[in-house]
Specification:
The chain is α/β, with parallel strands linked by helices and 306 residues long. It has 9 helices and 15 strands. It has a single domain, classed as Spore Coat Polysaccharide Biosynthesis Protein SpsA, Chain A. The strands form 5 sheets. It has a 5-stranded mixed sheet. The chain is globular and about 50 Å long.
């Protein structure tokens, strides 16, 4: 496979419109419903420049999430995004507590895999120029305008330069290698950059061109290609497509994180939560409390005044 890919007319990167439209995209599921409700409430109070908020959920969760719909908020059924050959079941190996997505074209996939596939797939349905990805366990605490994601006709690509060369990033290196394989990048061309965070932006047209690239290289649907490796990251795939295939066209890089995230550890006490918020950097406008850690959503609401 070639290590370079010259975009044709269908994938050439044009400057953004003078005033681009932006959508916020959130992949969620039933156990995170109340967290997602809080995200919506804090977005509505603090975030400007959003044409639409797409919430992407499994088919059986659609009715519950319809409670959050509004004039600019749409619930999207994954059945309208992903191929019908990808089937979801209750997993007997987990005592039927977890879900598993099965097909003859992919590895068995968990919910966190399929949420990533939804985030890629929404680009084919959305009409906005810029897609801003925000997890459902995020809450905005300060005023924020999505205009921060573009300048001079380019979209802001989050990137931590060179961190994969450091010790302790083994899993991210696997994700990066698998991204390269999906995109048909020469195996010898490794990347040391990390593109993973929440509250980041992609160009919609670039996502669609990325999917076309994957299908052209492998001769089959991009979902089957990406899902054939269980260790993948949608952020790595997009980042490597932009940097290694398009040479950064249509984007500028930044390593500042707009969201301060409590990734792991124990649930935060009131005092620890206040210290966490007080430690937000000046550019950070939101916090993320990973739902699996178990910080009570009622406590979070009370402490941020909702």
């Amino acid at each position: 496979m070639n290590s370079r890919f010259v975009p044709d007319a269908a994938t050439a990167v044009e400057p953004l419109p003078r005033t681009p439209s932006a959508a916020i995209v959130t992949a969620s599921y039933a156990p995170d419903f109340e967290r997602c409700r809080l995200l919506c409430e804090t977005m509505d109070r603090h975030v400007a420049g959003v044409a639409r908020h797409y919430i992407l959920v499994e088919h059986r969760d659609v009715a519950q999430f319809r409670q959050l719909e509004g004039s600019r908020r749409t619930i999207v059924d994954e059945q309208d995004l992903l191929p019908r050959w990808l089937h979801v079941f209750d997993d007997p190996l987990s005592g039927f507590r977890r879900r598993i997505w099965l097909s003859l074209r992919t590895q068995p996939l968990r919910g966190w895999h399929v949420q990533q596939l939804r985030r890629i797939a929404i680009a084919a349905r959305a009409t906005e120029d810029v897609l801003v990805f925000c997890d459902s366990d995020v809450a905005f605490l300060k005023a924020f305008d999505t205009g921060a994601f573009w300048r001079d006709g380019k979209v802001r690509l989050f990137r931590r330069d060179g961190v994969l060369a450091n010790h302790g990033h083994d899993e991210h290196r696997v994700w990066s290698r698998n991204a390269g394989a999906a995109l048909g990048i020469d195996r010898a061309r490794l990347s040391t950059h990390d593109y993973i965070s929440t509250l980041i932006a992609w160009r919609r047209e670039t996502v669609n061109a990325m999917c076309q690239r994957i299908e052209k290289v492998h001769g089959r649907e991009w979902v089957s290609v990406v899902g054939s490796a269980r260790k993948f990251s949608e952020c790595m795939i997009y980042g490597r497509y932009v940097d290694d295939v398009l040479d950064g066209a249509g984007h500028f890089h930044s390593s500042e994180e707009f969201c301060r995230v409590h990734w792991n550890g124990e649930a935060l006490s009131d005092d620890a939560f206040r210290r966490f918020v007080d430690a937000m950097a000046p550019e950070q406008v939101a916090i993320g409390m990973q739902s699996f850690i178990g910080t009570d959503i009622g406590r979070i609401r009370r402490l941020i005044g909702f």
